[in-house]
Amino acid sequence: MATKIRLQRHGHKDYAFYPIVIADSRAPRDGRFIERIGYYNPNTNPATISLNFERALYWLNVGAIPTDTVRNILSREGVLLMKHLQGGVKKGAFDEAEAQKRFDAWKAEREAKLEAVRNKERDSKKAAATKALEEETEKNKAKAEAVAKKRAEKLAAEAAEAAEAAAADAAPATEATEAPAEA
Q1: Separation between Cα atoms, residue 181 and residue 175, nearest integer Å
Q2: Cβ–Cβ contacts within 10 Å for residue 153, how many?
Q3: Cβ distance 11 to 17 under 8 Å?
Q4: Cα-flanking dihedrals φ and ψ of residue 34, to 5°?
Q5: Cα(118)–Cα(123) distance, rounded to whole angstroms?
Q6: Is 0.90 topped by the overall pTM?
């Protein structure tokens, strides 16, 4: 029986996530499987991967063949590197302690790179939020100035209207007082 390490598709349209399973190569993609060893969620940034490292390494050592995508995931998680280092131990190139030391150094370097990516993403979001806030403040200030100018024009127009009304009320009174004087 040829076993494969592959992804099963779960979720709904436009939001898929993938359990990583060990399955017979003849079984359908989303069908029967032997063991679930983790999951892969590409919807997050960076993609979320949860993997049972020991079981993945076991299945690789007994001959399970990963698909291309799963091979990339296993490589990113270090399972393929550990398999390679175990091969070096079996050949006598170095001992188990040296293999573990090399793996730990690789893992620390990888974690540092991932943390740098997360920090960069967080900082860019923070900068974008700050820029958006500044732009919003400028827009609000411009809108407040426009409203104040419009209000001042309205008050000036009302004052002019009131002055005209007062002048109009005063003009007929002076005409009335002047007209009898002429008579």
Answers
A1: 10
A2: 10
A3: yes
A4: -85, -50
A5: 9
A6: no
> pLDDT per residue over 89-144, tens digit each?
999 888 899 999 999 999 999 999 989 988 998 999 999 999 999 999 999 999 99
Q: Is 3.40.50.720 the CATH classification of the domain at 3-93?
A: no
Residue with tokens 């370097």: 109
In angstroms, the CA 126 to CA 5 distance is: 39
What does the DSSP assignment read for the chain? --EEEEE--EEETTEEEEEEEEEETTS-TTS--SEEEEEEETTSSSPEEEE-HHHHHHHHHTTPEEPHHHHHHHHHHTHHHHHHHHHHHHHTSS-HHHHHHHHHHHHHHHHHHHHHHHHHHHHHHHHHHHHHHHHHHHHHHHHHHHHHHHHHHHHHHHHHHHHHHHHHHHHHHHHHHHHHHH-
Contacts (Cβ under 8 Å, ≥6 apart) of 121: 45
Report which residue type is found at 64.
Answer: A
